[in-house]
Amino acid sequence: MQDVPNIGVPGGKTVAHGGDLGEVRRRHPDAPQPWIDLSTGINPLPYPVAELPADAWSRLPSHEAGQALIAAAATRYRCKASQLVAAPGTQALIQVLPRLVARSRVAIVGPTYAEHELNWRRHGHDVAVVADLEAANADVVVVVNPDNPTGRLLPTQALRAVAARLLVVDEAFIDLLPNEASLAGGLPDNAIVLRSFGKIYGLAGLRLGFAIAAMPLAQRLREELGPWAVSGPALSIGSAALTDDAWLQETATRLAGDARKLDALLVSAGFTVLGGTPLFRLASHPKAHEKVEDLARQGIHVRAFADRPTCLRFGLPHGDEEFRRLSAALQVPQKVR
Q1: Cis amide linkage into residue 188, ω under 30° from 0
Q2: Where are the chain's structural domains?
Q3: Mean pLDDT over all residues of the chain?
Q4: With 60 as the cut, is the pLDDT of residue 9 above it?
């Protein structure tokens, strides 16, 4: 149910993530069906996937299909194709990157997405979580921008001023922000940008993501990932989605309206909205733990945080029925304890 914050040394605890309903279903077997999973920041209305040719499943991914995906991503992210590395999700890149860097002092601006700290520590780096970019005096600086879960957005001017040997900028939730919010379009020589496909396109199960980096780091990532790192279906679907400007614009409009609707609903239920992105909202409530259980009893799963006990993260409901169920569940009286 809760994040395990800022941990992950070998043999230690692991990081809990949203999106897995197994545990909450076991705790609440009598909850109404179907469950509404608001524990992730994934677009609840995914990109419509066309029927794929049979050989997308039966043949090894082709070089031509890989190049088409890279070309589509380069246009979408406004970067050079030579800088792009396709991977089976940005999580794979988060796992690989610390292996390619000599033991270093690493500063992570946070607390934030805990897999960054876990993986840099796992590979023997000296890691510190710092409160802001000004305190990030290290060989490697890691920033999630916009931040997960607060939505804090650091300007690219401040990121370009970072003098670290390597600057890692995780832009998993940046897709619907203005182009100038991304570092990808004018990449500094010391930077690597991570871009997620599955979140905005609602296809997290496809496992597709990108690194944007200068040579030789981009080439080292390609070598580490090896041949056929991205599946044939992911190459085909990713190429189509990344070139569909009309779908992305329509999605941006819909999500903006849903985010405003969710904010109003949360405020009416006694929450304080602290921030977020177009795909999720972070809100606080003095009885956040009780709210989690109230919602779970109504078949709604949200994200709680061990290091922020009064905070909950809400993904966006989809459609009138999900909003109706969430509104009703948020008004459930607290049980007498």
Answers
A1: no
A2: 2-45+246-330, 58-243
A3: 93
A4: no
